[in-house]
Design a protein that fits this description.
By secondary structure, the protein is of the alpha/beta class. The chain is built from twelve helices and 15 strands. Helix 5 packs across helix 6, helix 6 crosses helix 7 and helix 6 packs across helix 10.
């Protein structure tokens, strides 16, 4: 997969921008606050439908304007794909693929695969379980259409079940109330179980790939990722008959819902299920969220991103586009050297840096852009080292 062209209008500090990217490494060089990360953010927005820096689209509009537009021309399997994401204060967010309107970002996740590493990544390890669930859901959704459908269905059913728990408590002593909750349970369990099984499989694969990357980057330690469901189930789902696993998970899920029914009615919310899952990062069996140094956490996060890159390649047969934001301040020279070696090949990469000397670290040529005050000028075309 390649990003050929990027167009921005009134996005962050850019009034108007049109650039063509190199199939290999693209380096955006400039002082802090000039707009380098804004380009990374725009590419991520076109790839996922969401900013990785803010949930509020109005913050992406250039000061004094009322709307923004981003357009990216991608090349995938020799086919061209135009992704447009726009937002106005009057109409909200609009997403189009080759001119066709998409009702939500979830509809087109997977059309473009993006992997990003930057300063904000540590929140995945250091933040709450919601951060890790969001990472997993975006990662799996970008590869599997069935997971996207299940996730959307689960969220809808969960919302309706929670509404009943909150508003229908007075009915629970009646046959009508008990029957209604049983109906929601019968809808929630099958889709929830499919989500849990897919998460267990992907975390197992991702753990192996991230550890392999970690070995290349760090001198010592065994990195492991563990899927932690909200209730106890056997985590050998990847090595057993699928029908048997579904049956076992479903029985346990139903048992736990029955056990917690009174507490759920009291609190007015569903207390277990995939919406309460977690993922644990450990090095040599020590939870690094609680006991790891920031250096260990940062290295583990880079290994996770490289494992994510390999997972997408293995599952889709294509390289994703790699975005590296301010990597020179996040990693020491030794770890950067391992990173350049790891991605040396056909992976299109967009890198931001404050010092052009970072170019001396690359084994191959790169296309260089000078970024200053919301404008970008091409310094070289990547044809020479």
């Amino acid at each position: 997969m390649l990003l050929e062209k990027l167009r921005l209008r009134n996005f962050r500090n850019y009034t108007s921008l049109d650039i063509e990217l190199f199939p290999g490494k693209n380096v955006l060089v400039g002082d802090n606050g000039q707009g380098k990360t804004n380009v990374i953010e725009a590419i991520h927005l076109c790839g996922t439908g969401k900013s990785y820096r803010t949930p509020r689209e109005n913050e992406l509009i250039k000061w004094g304007e009322s709307a923004f537009y981003t357009g990216s021309r991608f090349l995938r399997n020799n086919d061209s794909l135009l992704v447009e994401v726009a937002y106005s204060q009057e109409k909200g967010k609009r997403i189009r693929l080759d001119g066709v309107h998409q009702d939500s970002a979830m509809e087109y996740i997977g059309a473009v695969n993006i992997v990003i590493f930057g300063p904000d990544d540590l929140r995945i390890i250091k933040g709450g379980p919601g951060e890790r669930r969001r990472f997993l859901d975006l990662e799996i959704s970008s590869i599997y259409e069935g997971y996207r459908r299940d996730l959307a269905g689960y969220r809808r059913i969960l919302s309706q079940r929670n509404r009943f728990l909150k508003d229908g408590r007075h009915l629970m002593n009646s046959i009508q109330g008990k029957t209604a909750l049983d109906v929601w349970d019968k809808q929630l369990i099958p889709v929830g179980v499919r989500i849990m099984i897919k998460r267990a499989k992907i975390v197992e694969k991702l753990s192996s790939l991230a550890h392999a990357a970690y070995k290349e980057i760090a001198s010592t330690g065994f990195l492991k990722l563990d899927y932690l469901p909200s209730f106890d189930v056997p985590l050998d789902a990847t090595h057993r008959d699928k029908a048997a696993v579904i049956d076992e998970y479903s029985r346990i899920f139903q048992r736990e819902l029955n056990r917690l029914k009174k507490a759920e009615l009291l609190q007015g919310i569903t207390l277990i299920g995939p919406h309460r899952d977690n993922m644990v990062f450990s090095i040599d069996d020590v939870d690094i969220r609680t006991f790891g140094s920031q250096g260990q956490q940062r290295t583990a996060m880079l290994a996770l991103r490289l494992g994510e890159l390999d997972l997408i390649r293995n599952e889709t047969g294509e390289d994703p586009i790699l975005l590296l934001d301010d990597v020179s301040s996040e990693l020491d020279p030794s770890k950067r050297a391992h990173l350049w070696k790891y991605i040396d090949g056909d992976i299109q990469t967009v890198i931001t840096a404050t010092d052009q000397k970072i170019l001396n670290e690359f084994p191959k040529s790169a296309k260089v852009f000078k970024v200053q005050s919301g404008s970008i000028k091409e310094v070289n075309d990547g044809s020479s080292g």
